[in-house]
Design goal:
The complex is a heterotrimer of chains A (277), B (369) and C (258).
Chain A lengths: L7 E10 L4 E8 L2 H6 L7 E6 L3 E6 L10 E6 L3 H6 L7 E8 L12 E7 L7 H9 L7 E9 L6 H8 L4 E9 L7 E2 L16 E6 L2 H13 L7 E4 L15 E2 L2 E2 H4 L2 E3 H4 L9
Parallel strand pairs in A: 7-8, 7-11, 8-9, 9-10, 11-12
Antiparallel strand pairs in A: 1-2, 1-6, 2-5, 3-4, 3-6, 12-15, 13-14
Chain B lengths: L4 E4 L3 H10 L3 E8 L2 E6 L10 E6 L2 E6 L16 H4 L3 E9 L5 E5 L8 E6 L1 H15 L6 H9 L1 E5 L10 H4 L11 E6 L2 E6 L2 H9 L2 E2 L3 H16 L11 H5 L6 H8 L5 H5 L6 E7 L5 E8 L9 E2 L2 E2 L4 H20 L9 H4 L7 H8 L6
Chain C lengths: L2 E7 L5 H7 L3 H9 E6 L4 E2 L5 E7 L5 H12 L1 E7 L1 H5 L11 H8 L23 E3 L6 H12 L11 H7 L5 H5 L15 H4 L16 H10 L4 H8 L7 H11 L4
Classes of the chains: A alpha/beta (277), B alpha+beta (369), C alpha/beta (258).
């Protein structure tokens, strides 16, 4: 854990435009000591600070085994993310983190692994996939499912192709609305469950995306035999302090920034899918 | 009672002078704008002598009488919360040089003197303990709150005049202060029975002109404790209401409250345990520096539950439900007890008089024991 | 290159322009940062010079206004409405609730020579507005914060919260609870620093409607404080009468039943 109260200075090393509204920033801590000390777990997030504008929580989607390069994929939706979108290599910004509880990597050994993501929800699981691919032998079958609203929203198509070439790795894509050239399924991500080639009773699922999608997908997986302790969800709420003080991210008794953002289904089952909580 | 003494009314100023002499910034209750407010106190004359408050839902009225007492009222809109968890606080600042390099630094602390607060109530002490749990006892301790909390000296005064909105007896937090103070006072017409709750308190007592406490004075204090308890007409059901409230998440009464609720957040602002804040950036006009601020926020505001493109609690009924189920339910799981200390501020200072006790009873389906 | 700004006046009292002119030394600092290309009240008169940021004061009340605001929009990068008139029609929008031509006939000997639209309307009804600054007048700090944000290339954060939150942060004592004042704070957006309640008087909603305003509940409370329905209505139909939430609440109370 590095400094939590005050941002550290980082520099943009590389900027990639992934789609008209999605971009990836690769960042590097300026101070060597901070760079050496920085470690993150897959599923954790950083607070990125745009000078004079404010902070925004963004999940870390780089490789956890190369923590010196901090990667963040961001959709341009608000004032801070809109400002971050204009950063160029060499520009400086602030960073606090990493924060929160990440994915249950220690529970994946020797099990089937299912990853279900929607929209830009794939970003928080990229560190998981990086590790799965690097240590492929530790895990049994892997299935990566991604749903998007429109087929044009899909980013990282070549990465999915690359993952699909790995042994015992299933990659399934779905788009609610499909344009020409779309080879995936048409419909919600849950329509892909029919084609899953994994043993849900002996699997761990990691899920991230819009809440209604996660609700529908986890309920269906439970019906299909997955356990409540084996479905892990990355939750989103307003976060300002990232240390469990500002109160915005409360979800029942949980502080999503501190107790999450990743939760096993059982821990949040009572509130999950309820309106206005 | 061992270690107590009697401070005659005409000697009360000694307490203020001694605290100031020891380097404290002394804060105490005063009548201002029709309410009891806590502010810098340098002399006895500033205390709300003879002030009697009539406090009802959405209506607070002060009357100045010839009664000799300073503390013949229950509370005002605020007490300790703004002194420790400031309404607006600089968290850190950033500078940018002409090459675009940034430099971050901690906020300057302007107030070096520790605080001594006179006239703290049992409900305020209970609330302070809850704020301590939130800001200090987790994995991350808030340095701003911690700095002020560390030197804080507390002079409690047992409550003899509960308001109609008070219900601390039912939450178990008052009206008598039992712990968490340096000194505790019982006010009688002629003066104060003083007891210490800490070494600092004991040391202070040594410098005061104290008389021995008489049996009849102790008896009078005991009677007033009992009377303050029995005068309370409002109550909350005891215990952890998490499950009971969760089972009534779709109860129609949430909407009935929302029809009256202004979502103005006054209840959360005056609540001594509410801890929500948002963060805001305040850049200098020339762009050379920027201050990162924290400000009190409220779960009644739209921004509180905003995530990109979506307000989670768009409807006021969700906001009231969030507040009440958090306060009376989730707090138990987060901090081991209810988030309500029975001070009644949310009832008094709600502009439309929404009554926490009544609404809770209505949601839980009628009255309670 | 410095950003160019313009300050344009329409139907208004000029009070919001004073938020610039009253800045004192800060005005010099501002002048270091931006080039003030048009600001009639300060002497810069070339209205057709293109600008990066246009600050517009006043409502659109005449046919000439209507044409002029379109021209300004065309040559402006960002357009910011400044104050109640430009943002919500202002005080003069009260005529929208009456028969404006009858008023003209009552007041002027030859009303036919006047160029006056039936309604005084917010700028946003005619052209796209990038940022709205509320208030009568606007607050200088808010104005500067907006300039700073726009120079950083972002919009300032939305400020839609209730005045009550700002009032309590200022440690002001609630005037509705202690004095029975019919305070509009619970339906009004923050930004002014809670000036009126801090000086013991009720907010009169010059900053316009906040998010989730409950005009029914507040109006009922005002009735409890002794106001007649028409007086409740007038609290809403005042400086920001043309703002949707206030217009709707005001008309409901004016019709005598909530």
């Amino acid at each position: 854990m590095t400094e939590r109260g005050i941002p550290m200075q980082v520099e943009v090393v590389e900027r990639v435009q992934e789609s008209p509204t999605v971009f990836t920033l690769q960042l590097r801590l300026i101070e060597e000591a901070q760079r050496d000390a920085y470690r993150f777990d897959p599923g954790q997030f950083n607070m990125l600070y745009l000078y004079g504008v404010g902070e925004v929580p963004i999940s870390i989607d780089g490789d956890p085994d190369r923590p010196e390069l901090l990667q963040h994929t961001i959709r341009e939706v608000g004032r801070v993310s809109g400002g971050l979108a204009r950063l160029q290599p060499g520009d400086r910004l602030g960073l606090r983190g990493p924060f929160g509880r990440g994915w249950p990597m220690e529970r994946l050994d020797g099990r089937d692994v299912l990853i279900v993501t929607g929209g830009l929800g794939c970003a928080p699981v990229l560190p998981v996939i990086a590790r799965l691919m690097r240590q492929r032998e530790r895990y049994r079958r892997v299935a990566i499912l991604q749903g998007v609203k429109h087929s044009d929203d899909l980013i990282w198509r070549e990465r999915y192709d690359e993952w699909a070439r790995l042994p015992d790795t299933q990659v399934l894509l779905a788009a609610d609305v499909a344009g020409p050239q779309w080879h995936g399924a048409v419909g919600l991500v849950t329509t892909l469950f029919e084609r899953l080639d994994i043993d849900l009773a002996n699997s761990t699922t990691m899920m991230c995306g819009p809440e209604p999608m996660m609700v529908a997908a986890s309920r269906e997986l439970l019906q299909r035999g997955a356990g409540e302790d084996d479905i892990w969800l990355s939750m989103e709420r307003n976060m300002q302090c990232a240390v469990g003080h500002c109160g915005h991210c409360q979800y029942g008794e949980k502080f999503i920034c501190r107790d999450g953002p990743v939760f096993p289904y059982r821990e949040i089952a009572a509130l999950f899918g309820q309106r206005g909580v | 009672m061992d270690g107590t003494g009697f401070l005659q009314r005409e000697h009360f100023g000694e307490l203020i002078r001694i605290l100031a002499g020891r380097g404290y910034r002394v804060i105490g209750p005063q009548l201002r704008d029709g309410a009891i407010v806590y502010d810098d106190l340098s002399e006895v004359a500033q205390l709300p002598s003879g002030v009697i408050m009539d406090v009802q839902p959405a209506r607070v009225h002060a009357t100045v009488t010839q009664l000799p007492r300073y503390f013949s009222w229950a509370n005002g809109p605020q007490a300790l919360k703004p002194l420790l968890f400031r309404p607006v606080e600089t968290l850190w600042q950033a500078c940018r040089d002409d090459k675009g390099r940034l430099e971050f630094s901690a906020a300057d602390e302007q107030e070096a003197r520790p605080l001594a607060v006179i006239g703290v109530r049992a409900c305020d002490l209970a609330a302070l303990e809850l704020q301590d749990r939130h800001f200090l006892q987790g994995e991350y301790s808030d340095p701003h709150y911690a700095r002020r909390r560390e030197g804080l000296l507390l002079v409690a005064v047992n409550c003899t005049h509960p308001d109609a909105t008070c219900f601390c007896a039912s939450t178990g937090d008052g009206p008598q202060a039992r712990t968490g103070f340096d000194l505790v006072l019982d006010e009688l017409d002629t003066g104060f029975i003083i007891g210490a709750g800490s070494k600092r308190g004991t040391a202070l007592m040594e410098d005061l002109s104290l008389l021995p406490v008489r049996e009849d004075q102790l008896a009078k204090a005991a009677v007033s404790h009992q009377a303050a308890r029995e005068a309370q007409t409002r109550a909350l059901p005891p215990g952890d209401l998490y499950d009971a409230l969760a089972a009534r998440r779709e109860h129609p009464h949430w909407q009935a409250v929302a029809e009256r609720c202004l979502s103005c957040g006054n209840c959360t602002s005056v609540c001594p345990t509410c801890f929500c804040s948002h963060e805001r950036e305040q850049p200098r006009l020339d762009g050379s520096g920027s201050v990162h601020l924290r400000e009190w926020d409220s779960c009644f505001s739209e921004g509180h539950s905003y995530i990109t493109g979506l307000v989670i609690r768009a409807e006021p009924r969700h906001r009231y439900r969030q507040w009440l189920t958090h306060k009376l339910g989730a707090w138990h799981r987060q901090y081991g007890r209810s988030g309500c200390v029975g001070c009644g501020r949310c009832i008094a200072w709600c502009p439309v008089g929404i009554d926490l006790c009544e609404e809770t009873a209505a949601v839980l389906g009628g009255g309670h024991d | 290159m410095k950003a160019r700004i313009g300050v344009y006046k329409f139907s208004s009292c000029d009070g919001c322009q004073l938020a610039f002119l009253n800045l004192g030394e800060t005005l010099l600092a501002l002048d270091e940062l931006v080039e003030i290309s048009y600001f009639a009240e300060a002497g810069m008169m070339d209205e057709d010079t293109p600008v990066d940021i246009a600050f517009v004061e006043g409502s659109i009340s005449t046919a000439a206004d209507r044409e002029r605001i379109r021209r300004i929009r065309d040559h402006s990068g960002r357009l910011v409405t400044m104050g109640a008139c430009a943002t919500a029609g202002g005080l003069q929008a009260l005529r929208n609730l009456a028969d404006a031509s009858a008023w003209l006939a009552d007041v002027y000997a030859t009303p036919e020579v006047l160029d006056s639209l039936d309604q005084a309307l917010p700028v946003a009804e005619f052209v796209e507005v990038d940022l709205e600054l509320w208030g009568c007048p606007v607050d200088s700090r808010q104005l500067l914060a907006a300039v700073r944000s726009l120079l950083f290339g972002v919009l300032p954060p939305p400020q839609r919260e209730k005045l009550c939150l700002e009032c309590k942060r200022q440690q002001a004592v609630c005037v509705m609870v202690t004095k029975g004042e019919p305070c509009m704070g619970p339906v009004t957006r923050s930004g002014c620093g809670a000036i009126c309640p801090r000086f013991g008087r009720a907010c009169y909603a010059c900053y316009g409607p906040a998010e989730s305003p409950n005009g029914s509940a507040l109006g009922r409370r005002f009735e409890g404080l002794g106001l007649l329905p028409e007086q409740v209505a007038r609290r809403f139909l005042f400086i920001n009468s043309h703002a949707d939430a206030f217009l709707e609440a005001g008309q409901r109370w004016m019709s005598g039943h909530d």
